[in-house]
Amino acid sequence: MSIDPRSYTYPDDILRDRIILITGSSDGIGKALALHAATLGAQVILHGRSVQKLEKLYDTIEEIEGAPRPSIAVMDLESANADSYTTLAQSIESEFGRLDGLVLNASVLGERYSIEQYDAVLWQKVMHVNVTSVFAMTQVFLPLLQKSDDPSVIYTSSGVGRTGKAFWGAYAVSKFATEGLSQVLADEHRHSKLRSNCINPGATRTNMRLAAYPAEDRDLLKRPEEILAPYVYLLGPDSKGVTGESFDAQ
Q1: From the candidates 118, 171, 231, 233, which is the catalytic residue?
Q2: Lowest CB count within 10 Å: 3, 35, 41, 183, which one?
């Protein structure tokens, strides 16, 4: 591959007419990506659990000249069940008929404990939100993605999902699983147009990063808006044929 996604440059309408669902779009990287994708012409479906935050983001996108009107999908991944996912997929199918991009960005950190000290209930919660809900979203939206001419799934990984590090517990294990899910999906669809890839955002100025490193100087970290080029690359037409890969955003 000759393109370095970190330095990828693109026209300002690269995502025109693409329907993209972004989980966890009320904060951090998801919010920044939703805003940017809308400015690039995408019809963005905003997912999160806070109605207030999503409505505020909706209003912000509405003020962007030329941006398609977004949609809101309120769902708490911790408590969602099979019916919740099916209802959401049916709603999107009824409104749009297809899905061109699925960005599975929502995650929870849990606690940074040793394996010996890790609470089993908290472990289950982290694995449910970071792995089981991601699998469920992938599965329920595959039929809609397959109706697209150029479908792309992006999973959010982490450096600790490639090399295990002490005290990262369930979060690290969940990101190893995320990498595996993406690779399995990519291999299952290696002869189709669907592509599946991971992005490791790296150290970014988000609330999750603050929770993990409360003493860190946040001013030294890149803002979410500064690491979006790989996401645009994988959501747009220039990444056709790129699948089963894991990219660093910085």
Answers
A1: 171
A2: 3
Give the count of alpha carbons within 13 A of 72, CB side only. Answer: 18
Question: Is 2 within the bounds of a domain?
Answer: no
Q: How far apart are CA 226 and CA 99, in angstroms?
A: 26
Kindly report the CA angle at 36 between 86 and 62, in degrees rounded to 5?
75
- Given a contact cutoff of 8 angstroms between Cβ atoms, the answer to whether 196 and 155 are in contact is yes
Determine if residue 14 is left, alpha or beta; phi over 0 gives left, psi from -120 to 50 gives alpha, anything else beta.
alpha
Residue 171 is a catalytic residue: yes
Q: What are phi and psi of 24, to 5 degrees?
A: 65, 40
Amino acid at 108: V
Domain membership of residue 99 (yes or no) is yes
Domain range for 52 = 13-248
Residue 139 included in any domain? yes
pLDDT band at residue 184 under the 50/70/90 scheme: very high
Backbone φ/ψ region at 17: left (φ over 0), alpha (ψ -120 to 50), beta: left
Domain total in the chain: 1
Q: Which are the contacts of 109, defined by CB distance < 8 A and separation ≥ 6?
A: 126, 171, 208, 211, 212
- pTM confidence score: 0.94
- Gap between the Cα atoms of 76 and 74, Å rounded: 7
Task: State mean pLDDT over 182-209.
Answer: 92
- Has residue 189 been placed in a domain? yes
